[in-house]
Design a protein that fits this description.
By secondary structure, this protein is mostly helical. The protein has two domains: 48 residues; 98 residues, Winged helix-like DNA-binding domain superfamily/Winged helix DNA-binding domain (Arc Repressor Mutant, subunit A), CATH 1.10.10. 63% of the residues lie in helices and 7% in strands. It contains eight helices and three strands, in the order αααβααββααα. The protein has a three-stranded antiparallel beta sheet. A hairpin with a 7-residue loop joins strand 2 and strand 3. The chain is globular and about 60 Å long.
Length: 178
């Protein structure tokens, strides 16, 4: 880990924003920039844990998703939708997982236009090992105070919902017709 900076660069940027007459945007800029920097820090931690397994977080997420399915496979488009990534990202991840012998592609048995991505036995064996490392080295102690985690999750969940990332189940509920 690099040495900490002598002062917070985001606070410094906020001060500059205010000095340049952008007071109304300064707090939002600081919040967005802090979230983006936090993402970089957390992703670096996760990637460092997964590196010995030959995985990136994107590839681990795909393998974990496949391992959670009953069949061990999903249509590539559905995998991308569930992971909320562009189809090109899924293709790239599958290419790398295939090269490593952790996943493969096959045609859907009843829809020849659909390509399934399928976890291999080696992939199934790797997921719990990588997950255990992530759990013990990152997720059990993510770097936030225990008292802050529920609040943080709530804030980020509301933001994602309001940004159109997902719908509340209550919004999808319809009263049965009488």
């Amino acid at each position: 880990m690099p040495h900490p900076l002598p002062r917070d660069p985001i606070a410094e940027a906020r001060r500059h924003w205010e000095e340049h007459g952008w007071e109304k945007a300064a707090e939002g800029m600081a919040a967005v920039t802090a979230v983006m920097r936090t993402h970089q820090i957390l992703l670096t931690r996760v990637e460092n844990v997964l590196k010995p397994f030959g995985l990136t977080f994107a590839r681990f997420e795909l393998l974990a998703l496949l391992s959670f399915t009953g069949s061990g496979s999903l249509p590539m488009a559905k995998a991308g939708a569930r992971l909320q990534v562009h189809p090109t990202s899924v293709t790239n991840a599958v290419d790398r997982l295939e090269q490593a012998g952790l996943a493969g592609r096959r045609r859907h048995p009843s829809d020849g236009r659909t390509v399934l991505v399928e976890i291999t036995l080696a992939g199934r064996k790797l997921v719990p090992l990588a997950a255990a490392a992530l759990n013990s080295e990152v997720f059990v102690h993510p770097g936030f105070a225990a008292d802050d985690l529920a609040t943080l999750i709530d804030i980020l969940t509301r933001f994602r919902r309001d940004a159109g990332d997902f719908q509340d189940p209550a919004e999808n509920f319809q009263e049965p017709a009488e």
